[in-house]
Amino acid sequence: MAMRKYQVAFSFASENRPYVKKVADHLQNSGVDVFYDSFEQVDLWGKDLYSHLDNIYRNRAHYCVIFISEAYGRKTWTNHERKSAQARAFEENQEYILPVRFDDTEIPGIHPTIGYVDLRSTQPQQLAEMIIQKLHRSSFLKDEQTQAILSSSKAQGKTKSAYSSRTQTKTVKFNQEGIGKLPNDCPVVYRILTETGSNNFTGAAKKGEVQERIREHLLSGRKHVPGSKVKIERMSSIESARAKAERIIARTKPKYNGRRK
């Protein structure tokens, strides 16, 4: 196994640099080893970037954060970085790619069932702190290093992410037991999926009504929707949940959303 030089590597389009730079700066200031091109200008100078970047994204980081956007999907270099990262993920068959989204652009190999962070409702520092938590939970940061980082953030008067200590997405079996494990403490977007991950139905549920709303789809009759699993994503408000559900429906055209209720 190649020695991991970086705790996390960033893959992004230049159009999204202002946001990404803030995340990278926060991580670097917190003591996290992050591969961000502007931090590596001297090291990259004179190198064969095609092979060097392949090595970075395939071998040298514990995680790769892919900043998905329309610009990311159409660029040659970002596609090269993505393919290198996906080769690593395929070889190891474990978590490596951590998708984050500026929009709903579909990226080859990034399946809709993979948990992601929606940057439309996440500030750069919040994302940085989520990355720190992820590294800690995966044992890529020592306990004392994590605590020092988080204590430093608080000392500087910064606000901790509402999602930094809990999972933003959750996927469970589409049955009574699985639905009972879903959170009721915030609005959500939910998707009822087939075994292969196809989207049969997308909706939004208010805080306190998540389990009740999804259970309705288990019932026989006009509201029944078949499926194998249900995926939810926590949202900050029911308005943002409904807006996102509408975008997903427009993009994926779920089979059962067009039915009369």
Tell me what the structure shows:
With 261 residues, the protein is of the alpha/beta class. It has two domains: 6-155, Rossmann fold; 169-252, GIY-YIG endonuclease (3-Layer(aba) Sandwich). It is 40% helix and 18% strand. It is built from ten helices and nine strands. The strands form two sheets. It has a five-stranded parallel sheet, with helices on both faces. A four-stranded antiparallel sheet has the order 6-9-7-8, with helices on both faces. The longest helix has 17 residues, at 76-92. It is elongated and about 65 Å long. Mean pLDDT is 85; it is low at 155-166.
Mean pLDDT: 85
**Count of the domains:** 2
Let me know the CATH homologous superfamily of the largest domain: Toll/interleukin-1 receptor homology (TIR) domain
**CATH hierarchy class name of the largest domain:** Alpha Beta
Report the span from N to C terminus. 54 Å
Estimate what percentage of residues fall within beta strands: 15-25%
List SSEs in N-to-C order.
Answer: EHEHHEHHEEHHEHEEHEH
Biggest sheet architecture: 5 strands, parallel
- CATH topology of the largest domain: the name is Rossmann fold
State the shape. elongated
Catalogue the unreliable spans: 155-166
- Number of helix segments? 10
